[in-house]
Amino acid sequence: MLWQQALMNWDQVFIWGLAATAVLTSVLYGSQSMGLSRLSLPFLFGTFFFHDRSKASVSGFVLYLIGGWLFALLYFLLFAALGEATWWAGTITGFVHGLFLLTAFLPILPYIHPRMATEYDGPTSRRRLEPPGFLGLNYGRRTPMTTIAGHTLYGLLLGFGYQIG
Predict the structure, then answer these.
(1) Looking at residues 51-62, what average pLDDT do you find?
(2) Torsion over CA of 74, 134, 129 and 51, rounded to 10 degrees?
(3) Which helix (H) or strand (E) holds 150?
């Protein structure tokens, strides 16, 4: 049933997923540009596949956009299970999403990323990327704030934009 709703409303998932991903990406890139954080999730995703920084940046952006749409689909399914999509439900979901990223995903990233050093082993010739550290703080002390803000806005937009039914 939920998949049927998602298929019937694929245009909402596509459009609002793109808009929310654009806002999230703008917040994260903006925070980098203003010196608030050095975290670049698209770059980290791209370096999973490419050693070359240019290829990693471009491929990471494409992967991040696709990931944003996939997460938008998950949000839509969650809202459909709840029976409504509201800005406050999206805001809470986005906040929890950002918190999960900081507390669960980033800490395990050095152990699965082929080019990222770990906190314990340090950099090598192959693993040169700095590990994020607790809450991503190795990428700047404001990284948790900007990451939570971006993901909260992402959820708010999806909750505001989706129409269930």
Answers:
(1) 87
(2) -10
(3) helix 143-161
